[in-house]
Amino acid sequence: MQLVIRRYRPSDKDAVLSLFSAGTLEHIQPCFNEAISSPLYIGITLALCVAGYLLGSVLGAVVLPGAWVGLIYCCCHGVHSGYVRNKLKTDMQDIPGNYLSRPDDCYWVAEAEVEGIAHIVGMVAVVGKQSGNERYGELFRLIIAPTCRRRGLGVRLVQTVIDFCKERGFSAVMLETGSNQQAALALYKKLGFSLVLIHTNSSAPSWMYMLARVNVFRMKKQL
Predict the structure, then answer these.
(1) Is 0.85 surpassed by the pTM of this model?
(2) Residue 25: pLDDT above 70?
């Protein structure tokens, strides 16, 4: 499979939005599995089973922990689906205007040709920013289709951003990713990014992030 990384075109919009949505929402189930299997949440689930039983009802021993598990799943779903809804209404609604209208910004897609038909299988974006005297690039929207993972495409896309930032004279590349996205974290660390901040300020309420056991990691690579 031959992969080509190129600038975004308006005709890519439907494929890009579809890949962005699917690539983000696929984290719901792993997020839930990781949260509910934590020692704390296992303890809470068992305690609710016992509490329901002691209240004199076998049904209560099922309903109470079931409601707790359902709440955790809803929080994991809300964190990711809320993020997708927010971005589809804002920057992803006008990619050329938000990512291609300035020389310090760019949006790339990875295109693969399968049986003579071109498919969008990955994407990444960068926005030039300034904080005080420091000019840096912020990496956004790194998504790779499942069929093209573990083939080095993530490295190529991130490196495309790094090279662009060097050409623009930026001093660093910044990004944010979820604490539950282990593959992305491993990729960023491999490419020299280090953790600089942990927070929960995002599109979903902070209590939802807390119950889903998700933090936002802000990372930086000095150029």
Answers:
(1) yes
(2) yes
